């Protein structure tokens, strides 16, 4: 229930507004302020007169849907539930049937066969037919698109499936949450990054189910687009602008809030980060709305399609144009 004041039954369920208001009102306020500033500052990067249309999906879990047209289709993992070759191949065949010039897919934790460590014994000798789909597993693909005149545009897309551990040995590509599986792994020329896990504190629910090491790596690379899924209830889009205001927001998300009204106190560091969030938010607005400058950030997309309440596809594909 959206307004019921009890704790979520699962870390992957979103807390209700009332629960957040009662248990962490300052954190709720910080998140609201940050996203208001983001919405006012506008898109992550300048528009292009000849854009490439990227259609993003994730977490289909054996289900199918009608998808809008585009130049590139990206599936950010969890094609299946049990992760057998038969389940995966059915999803691959569906993706192959869709009318896109380029198709990208990575594994999710439910796609067990794709990780030899989680592969079922009955699938050991089986294979998959990806056709023309670019299956990325800690690898990149370089795609070419026509541009104005005789020139062409290049998109470098990198995909990696690993996630912080959240299940048993049947789940693919897991690592311990305090283990760094990301630093130095993503090429610096990456335009579009595809992972299954979110970076921590971005479209991953207030509890922070994403990976902090991935967040640091994305800070280093700063791709134009980052597509992921995994946290179904975190679906949506968000801009990352890579400034001191974002750093302050991420630190605030990671702080344990203490209650002022009940005799607690907030440290100097907390107040300084709130001040940084406000100052850089205002400066960003002046930069874009008064001085007319353009942002050069990252469009983050949690493309999960499954509705966390029903387990059925309840959302449409998300589209990014770059």
Largest sheet at a glance? 6 strands, mixed
N-to-C SSE string, H for helix and E for strand: HHEEHEEEEEEEHEEHHEE
Residues in helices, as a percent range? 25-40%
Taking all Cα atoms into account, the compactness measure Rg is 20 Å
Low-confidence stretches: 258-264
Number of strand elements: 13
Distance between the termini: 37 Å
Spatial order of the strands forming the largest sheet? 5-6-9-10-12-11
- Mean pLDDT level: 92
Q: How much strand?
A: 15-25%
- What structural category characterises the helix and strand content? alpha/beta
Silhouette: globular
* Number of H- or I-type helical stretches: 6
Structural summary, described in words:
25% of the residues lie in helices and 18% in strands. It has helices at residues 17-23, 25-41, 85-97, 212-221, 244-254, 268-290, and strands at 53-57, 72-75, 102-105, 134-135, 139-146, 152-160, 163-164, 174-175, 192-195, 225-228, 236-240, 298-302, 318-321. The longest helix is centred in the C-terminal third of the chain and has 23 residues, at 268-290. It is globular and about 60 Å long.
């Amino acid at each position: 229930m959206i307004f019921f004041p009890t704790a979520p039954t699962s870390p992957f369920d979103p807390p209700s507004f009332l629960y957040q208001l009662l248990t962490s009102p300052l954190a709720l306020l910080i998140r609201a302020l940050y996203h208001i500033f983001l919405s006012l500052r506008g898109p992550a990067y300048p528009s292009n007169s000849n854009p490439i249309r990227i259609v993003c999906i994730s977490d289909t879990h054996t289900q199918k849907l009608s998808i809008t047209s585009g130049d590139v289709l990206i599936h950010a993992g969890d094609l299946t539930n049990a992760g057998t070759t038969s389940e995966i191949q059915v999803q691959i065949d569906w993706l192959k049937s869709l009318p896109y010039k380029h198709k990208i897919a990575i594994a999710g934790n439910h796609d067990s066969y794709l990780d030899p460590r989680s592969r079922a014994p009955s699938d050991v000798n089986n294979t998959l037919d990806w056709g023309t789909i670019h299956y990325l597993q800690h690898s990149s693909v370089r795609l070419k698109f026509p541009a104005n005149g005789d020139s062409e545009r290049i998109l470098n897309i990198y995909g990696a499936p690993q996630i912080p551990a959240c299940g048993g040995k049947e789940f693919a590509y897991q690592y311990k949450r305090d283990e760094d599986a990301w630093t130095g792994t993503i090429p610096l020329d990456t335009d579009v990054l595809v992972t299954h896990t979110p970076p921590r504190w971005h479209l991953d629910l207030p509890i922070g189910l994403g990976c902090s090491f991935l967040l640091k790596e994305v800070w280093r690379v700063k791709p134009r687009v980052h597509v992921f899924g995994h946290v179904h209830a975190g679906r949506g889009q968000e801009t990352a602008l890579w400034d001191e205001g974002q750093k302050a927001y991420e630190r605030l998300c990671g702080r344990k809030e203490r209650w002022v009204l009940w005799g607690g106190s907030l440290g100097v560091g907390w107040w300084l980060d709130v001040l940084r969030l406000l100052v850089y938010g205002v400066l960003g607005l002046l930069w874009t709305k008064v001085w007319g400058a353009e942002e050069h950030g990252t469009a983050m997309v949690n493309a999960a399609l499954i509705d966390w309440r029903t387990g059925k596809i309840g959302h449409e594909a998300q589209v990014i144009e770059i």
